[in-house]
Amino acid sequence: MKFIKTSIPDIILCKPTVLNDARGYFFETFRKDELEHFLAEKIDFCQDNESKSVKGVLRGLHYQLPPFAQTKMVRVIKGSVLDIAVDIRKSSPTFGKYVAIELSEENKYQLFIPPGFAHGYVVLSEEAIFSYKVDNYYDKASERGILFSDDFLQIDWEFPLNEIIISEKDKVQPTIQNADLFQ
Length: 183
Prior knowledge:
Keywords: Isomerase. InterPro entries: RmlC-like, RmlC-like_jellyroll, RmlC_Cupin_sf. Homodimer. It is an enzyme of class 5 (isomerase). This protein is mainly beta. The chain has one domain: Sandwich (Jelly Rolls). The protein has two helices and 13 strands. The strands form three sheets. It has a six-stranded antiparallel beta sheet with strand order 1-2-10-7-12-5, with no helix packed on it. The protein is globular, with a radius of gyration of 16 Å.
């Protein structure tokens, strides 16, 4: 696995080594030892999640506050999505900036997202199966979100906003200026 720092260095693009032959392909989706060596810190993923969505579904921007903040490692098993991680650490030099990476079954990329980032994605293919690991359990009372169309963030979702399918909850999330954030 090759690890690459993005424009926000705490967000890591993970590119697996894929072995292809006439039978298909094989690759390691996760190697704790390699990731910990690259990060120079321990990672303890405790929960895996998976969702299936159709084209145009936007899920996000979500996060949990401490002490239930989560590190995530996300990937697409089927289809493709535009994955977004927004820096919501008020003291960060990249506060309010975001990383956008297409994750797909073809490129098999993964994104490592530490606490302090809001996360979301929009489905670009006819359907997508999205999978991710987290290092803290879901806690409803700690769950927060930011409005996906917040003018301050200027996120280019690379998808027509009038065609986006979004939950009622995500339609009414606060802007980043009005959200509970990380210090």
